[in-house]
UniProtKB/TrEMBL annotation, chains A, B:
This is Succinyl-diaminopimelate desuccinylase. The lineage of its organism: Bacteria, Bacillati, Actinomycetota, Actinomycetes, Micrococcales. Residues 198-296 form the Peptidase M20 dimerisation domain. Pfam families: M20_dimer (PF07687), Peptidase_M20 (PF01546). Keywords: Hydrolase, Metal-binding. Signal peptide: none annotated. It comes from Sinomonas atrocyanea. PANTHER family: ACETYLORNITHINE DEACETYLASE, N-ACETYL-L-CITRULLINE DEACETYLASE. Its EC number is 3.5.1.18. GO terms for biological process: L-arginine biosynthetic process; lysine biosynthetic process via diaminopimelate. GO terms for molecular function: acetylornithine deacetylase activity; metal ion binding; succinyl-diaminopimelate desuccinylase activity. InterPro entries: Bact_exopeptidase_dim_dom, Peptidase_M20, Peptidase_M20_dimer, Peptidase_M20A, Succinyl-DAP_deSuclase_DapE.
């Protein structure tokens, strides 16, 4: 084991303790530089990977010349710290009991410094720097990875999409993101969650004619005119679509409504904001067409949208990985960066330690055992 | 004719020219004092009425000892001046053509300095100060009024109800507002408009359960739940109710709707603001009960309301007045201060020169002939 003086992070320590060290290196979006520096130094010093830095993103690639290349990706930023006194999902981290055992609390514990710790530990275990392997502790040298691996660490995931470090990498260095299959180490409780639903936002607007409400018959009520929009949304039964063997449950919802100017004026305008989460069997144009069909007769304007991602589980590398994990894969409902890989032509799944429902919460935490289990599954797969 | 040095206003001049003088005495709500001073001085100097001042309201009463007393009331304030360059509904006033003929433009022309001018002219003609009557110009002295008259001039009508000068008078001096019948000289194009509809505002709220919109089935959508509220309002066919011979057209409308907290959150609350304009055959409690019945199953909270006023045309004084005007009376739809008289037990109608639809407009104006016609009708009735 080594503890290089040139790096703050010891990638060879227990992966749960490494997670705690990563939490302690506070890295709210926009303030990732110190952590990115530490990760870059550690990768250069403790692994044989070739490292490229772009802003606060780091790409570290192996060069074994294998026929397949897989990508392991994770963001290093977190949402802001809790503002509630006594919240444990903060910085520095804390343990229930002995360090390294049980539950680890802290900002980023589940989203997603546990996943980043697994990436870093894998990098050090699979691709140790020359002379750092302690042959004595492991008489039978472990198998060399069967696939080349690209590790991607990126900034600005928890903020507006335009700032995304992964988006910037895709624009500046698409070659560095080439691969046959990608795993995003977002929290999935150790289950493979394939692809993701797309998301589309539209505004449906009704237009009426203003009048004094004491003489309502002189106007036309735009809020009343919106009744069929709400009725159609309320009556709509969202589909569940099977894509590559996973069942994607869709949803179509009004997420906002506004209308009216004053308590004595017949409203001349009412706007319903609608969010359609659509299965990855369709593109964003198809999704928009479906909403337009449902709301036929109403003015519909797209305001926002991002395509989903197919799970890609039909790829051999993905199938092998699912077999190693040994659990039935699930569909991912929320939009994640797997969609960016999908757009680059790389099938991608989510797989990481921790519970996504604890993400961004004041009681954010992760189990040490879950982090180790995740590391073990990935290492077993990559060495197979 | 007299032109008292102690007063700025000559109440005996042509009533259209008097209207112009009143417009020129700018009196936006809250700035009525100078005009109230001038009116008080003129009434004291040029009439035999007994005058009481309360704030910027003035009550001037005759004491003929007649068996009936009628009230003529009007507010002396206006909405603010137009802010648009070149608008003619401003101060000072202006004429199309010769002063006193044709169209008079200015803030308050229709709402309601024309009506106030008619009140002041009537006061001077019916109840001239001792020694001011020019017998030479009118060899047959006009008949003395058959009814006692109370003239009410009040402030703060164009602002929130709590500031109303008429409301203050009703609280401080209910005795001064006693009478058998009241005419409010709001603009009605010279037609008697009887009573007024009441107004009720309620909020109907739906409550759901928030969830991420990517997992909509974890929540309940409060906006969708509001669909039946809008459908019932849209399908509702408002009644027309005949009260004392006038047809009151009701209306029931959503005047506002809001719901939703973010583009990716299932809304847990949606509030529809509803305004019911109800005929004066019912009180506010009955009106609220009707809305609750229509929206059965939904949470309904009353936020605001004011009862309407029956037209009171069955009163002999009212019937005589309608006969003198010689036009079919109409119902009043908007809420006006006749409702305050109604609450004091005094039947009241609206009758005044000018078009109510020009009130508050940048092109506010009134016809000189309409002002004179209004004065003639009232004088004929009061001398009958």
């Amino acid at each position: 084991m080594t503890s290089p003086a040139s790096a703050d992070l010891d990638l060879t320590q227990d992966v749960a303790l490494l997670t705690a060290a990563l939490i302690d290196a506070k890295s709210v979006s926009g303030e990732e530089t110190a952590l990115a520096d530490a990760i870059e130094r550690a990768l250069r010093a403790q692994t044989s990977l070739s490292v490229v830095r772009d802003g606060d993103a780091i790409v570290a690639r192996s060069g074994l010349g294998r026929s397949e290349r897989v990508i392991l990706a994770g963001h290093i930023d977190t949402v802001p710290l809790p503002t509630v006194d006594g919240a444990r999902g903060t910085v520095p981290s804390s343990w229930d009991g002995e360090p390294g055992e049980g539950t680890l609390w802290g900002r980023g514990a589940t989203d997603m410094k546990g996943g980043v710790a697994v990436q870093l530990a894998l990098a050090a275990r699979l691709f140790p720097a020359a002379g750092t392997h302690d042959a004595g502790a492991s008489p039978a040298a472990p198998a060399s990875p069967a696939r080349d691996v690209t590790f991607v660490f990126y900034d600005h995931e928890e903020v507006e999409a335009s700032k995304s470090g992964l988006g910037r990498l895709a624009a500046n260095h698409p070659d560095l993101l080439a691969g046959d299959f990608a795993i995003l180490l977002e929290p999935t409780n150790g289950t493979v969650e394939g692809g993701c639903n797309g998301t589309l936002r539209v505004e449906a607007t009704t237009v009426g004619e203003a009048a004094h409400s004491a003489r309502a018959w002189m106007g036309r009520n735009a809020i009343h005119a919106a009744a069929p929009i709400l009725a159609r949304l309320a009556d709509y039964f969202p589909a569940t679509v099977t894509v590559d063997g996973l069942d994607y449950r869709e949803s179509l919802n009004a997420v906002g409504i506004s209308g009216g100017t004053a308590g004595n004026v017949i409203p001349d305008r009412c706007t319903v904001t609608i969010n359609y989460r659509f299965a990855p069997d369709k593109g964003i144009e198809e999704a928009e067409a479906a909403v337009r069909t449902l709301l036929e007769g109403f003015e519909v304007v797209r305001t926002d949208g991002a395509p989903g991602a197919r799970p890609g589980l039909n790829h051999p590398a993905a199938a092998a990985f699912v077999a190693v994990v040994g659990r039935d894969p699930l569909p991912k409902y929320g939009w994640t960066d797997v969609a960016r890989f999908s757009q680059l032509g790389v099938p991608a799944v989510n797989f990481g330690p921790g519970d996504a429902l604890l993400a961004h919460k004041d009681d954010e935490r992760v189990e040490a055992a879950a982090i180790r289990e995740c590391l073990a599954s990935l290492e077993a797969w990559l060495r197979a």
